[in-house]
Amino acid sequence: MPPSLLSYETLVHALAGATGSVVGMAAFYPLDTLRSRLQVDNDLKMKGSSWELLVRLANEEGIEALYRGLSPVLQSVSVSNFVYFYCFHALRRLHTTEVTAVKDLLVGSVAGVINVLLTSPLWTVNMRMKVEKNKYDSLIKGLIEISKKEGAKGLWSGVLPSLLLVSNPAIQFMVYEYLKRHVIARGKFNAYSGFLIAAVAKAVATSLTYPLQLVQSRLRAGTSLKPLWRDVKSKPSVMFRGLEAKLLQTVMTAALMFFIYERLVRLVLLIMRVQSQRK
């Protein structure tokens, strides 16, 4: 393995990305729960604004329903983002030539493929815990139970659309890094501008890839795609069910995640430089 793939700086990026993702997901988790329910609901009973649906879910199933499966999701998102941030920044270090949007897109795609292959089983368990009450006691028990009953096919259900969906974080990182470079060139980049840039980047990526995300969610939940295809024939907009909740959740989560990420990276790297100068 090339030495450049292993560095403290890359590790800092990975840990900061994982930390930011956990905080962001925890802050906006009810919207993620709503998005999951909208994507796998065959009866199309959930209609109304995101706020109205959240209130209805809380009234009908209790506040705890909005946070069902929070712990395993936070475990999974931390692992997933650690892998993605580490791979993305490690692979970028291999390119000593000028960084471009196209190179960021390619590096993000490779990092996404690695991430999907390693962490897809975690998200399969999460989806089933989120849409079915008391499905599994924990993430580990869920992984064991699915592997026993369904084998690798069950654990990696939805992996094909997931592999196609590596375009989502790849597009997000491409747009984010592209805008970040331009803002830095003007000398105006800080954690707050990073927040806004991340929001724009995630909105673009989510809007472009949402139909694939819907198919992925249904496959992970073990839900048949036949009702979806039937509904799409009469109403194509069904492929964008839950987009409002998804945009609210992912945009705000990504924005908060990158805000924390940029702050942590700057702080830790500054401390590392000060310590190295003292030596």
Q: What fraction, in percent, of the residue positions are helical?
A: over 70%
Which structural class do you get from the secondary structure elements?
mainly alpha
Using the coordinates above, name the CATH class.
Mainly Alpha
Count of folded domains:
1
Mean pLDDT: 84
Q: Main sheet, how many strands, which sense, barrel?
A: none
Could you tell me how far the N terminus lies from the C terminus, measured between alpha carbons in angstroms?
A: 29 Å
The CATH level-2 architecture is identified as Alpha/alpha barrel
Using only CA atoms, what is the Rg? 19 Å
Low-confidence sequence ranges: none
- The CATH homologous superfamily is called Mitochondrial carrier domain
Outline of the structure:
The protein has 279 residues and is mostly helical. It has helices at 8-27, 29-40, 50-61, 70-93, 101-131, 139-149, 151-155, 159-164, 167-185, 191-220, 226-234, 243-278.
Architecture overview:
The protein is mostly helical. It has a single domain (3-278), classed as Alpha/alpha barrel (Mitochondrial carrier fold). It has twelve helices and no strands. The chain has helices spanning 8-27, 29-40, 50-61, 70-93, 101-131, 139-149, 151-155, 159-164, 167-185, 191-220, 226-234, 243-278. Helix 1 (8-27) runs antiparallel to helix 4 (70-93), helix 4 (70-93) runs antiparallel to helix 5 and helix 10 crosses helix 12. The model has no long low-confidence stretch (mean pLDDT 84).
